[in-house]
Amino acid sequence: MRLKEKVAIVTGAGRGLGRTIAKRFVEEGASVVIAEQDTESGRRVLAELQRAGATAFFVRTDVSSRPDVEILVDETVRRFGRIDILVNNAAVLGENGHFLQISQSVWDHVVSVNQTAVFICSQLVGRVMAKAGRGNIINISSINGAVPLPRCAAYVTAKSAVESLTRIAANDLAPYNIRVNTIAPGPIENRPPHLELPRLTEDTLLGRNGLPHEIAAAAVFLASEESSFITGERIAVDGGMLVNGYRIYGVERPAKPALPAKHQKEPPALGREN
């Protein structure tokens, strides 16, 4: 188990990616703190983890509220004595609208949850990690931090800022042996993977949407010692969407080309004597 005896806080763990990451972490041996604003979903995930024999507890948390996060951190330290991993996953898309029409209240809410909360959680948890001389912070961004999502200016701006925050935090926290990285998901299914296969799409090079467990696998990798020499990085888990040249340039994707015969003689390289 790659996270044995580790203590992890996962924000927004009551549903979606956060829930899947929390479940995968406990499978890898971690004790998990579910930081979730919605009490019902937080308790539901807690019950799921406990039925599986995991060590976990739930703290109702509005991650954009510094007092709430202070309680979350204090309660985690009180119970476990340390925090090894923080996953900043909580997010909100917000009201879609043209840039000229977005209200100040929508902007403030989306930025507070998607951007300011990452700062609050990382700073408060980072102080605990710094005292221990070790730690691992994983931020969940989005490929929309690099490619603007139309009619979602606040969301895109916040996700871009999270990637910048990742780099500056990695710089400042490295002396304390704290690594900071970002996962940028592409199109991910929110349906249970055991019910339906992922939707097929031409948007990604792999021809399909992703599944939550594929993001969770990346989170386990970054949280484990397997990534011990990686910090300040953004890992896009997007099926090749960001580098899909066919989609970017509107070029028709060719059918699979025929492979050369197994023993077909290759042409001589330039400058090679025959």
Automatic annotation (TrEMBL):
Q: Where are the transmembrane segments?
A: none
- Whether Oxidoreductase counts among this entry's keywords is yes
Cross-referenced InterPro entries: NAD(P)-bd_dom_sf, Sc_DH/Rdtase_CS, SDR_fam
GO terms assigned for molecular function: glucose 1-dehydrogenase [NAD(P)+] activity
Its domain of life reads Bacteria
NCBIfam families reported for this sequence: PRK07231.1
Describe the family membership recorded for this protein in Swiss-Prot or TrEMBL: Belongs to the short-chain dehydrogenases/reductases (SDR) family.
- What's the protein called, per UniProt? Glucose 1-dehydrogenase
Q: Which organism is it from?
A: Caldilineaceae bacterium SB0661_bin_32
